Amino acid sequence: MRFIYTGSVEITLDIAQDLLRAADQYLLEGLKRLCEYTIAQDISLENVSSMYELSEAFHAISLRHTCILFILEQFSKLSSRPGHSHLIQRIIPEIRTYFAKALTKPNPHNSRL
């Protein structure tokens, strides 16, 4: 309720996931971003899979992108861990889409020629 009236609230890691669920349900995008930021600070090799699933379940785009970057940065460590190959396979289409968009964006520097 404090966020609704003041636009700010202190979010601890203990409540961030539950608050993310509520923020998504009640369409409180500002609160959702704060929750995503708090959760993203705690991503680790042990929890990246569950954090990615959380991001998908509650349309937490920023958190999902943070998870993907973490997975790419820690690829060698994650790929050797049991149970993470399915996560890596799940993000490949999203990475492919990201690069396709990035590579097909018009370059403003080339249009001046």
TrEMBL record:
Residue ranges of every copy of the BTB domain listed in the record: 1-41
Pathway: Protein modification; protein ubiquitination
Superkingdom of origin organism: Eukaryota
Cross-referenced InterPro entries: ABAP1/ARIA, BTB/POZ_dom, SKP1/BTB/POZ_sf
Cross-referenced Pfam families: BTB (PF00651)
PANTHER family: ARM REPEAT PROTEIN INTERACTING WITH ABF2
Name the UniProt record assigns to this protein: ARM repeat protein interacting with ABF2
Source species of the chain: Vitis vinifera (Grape)
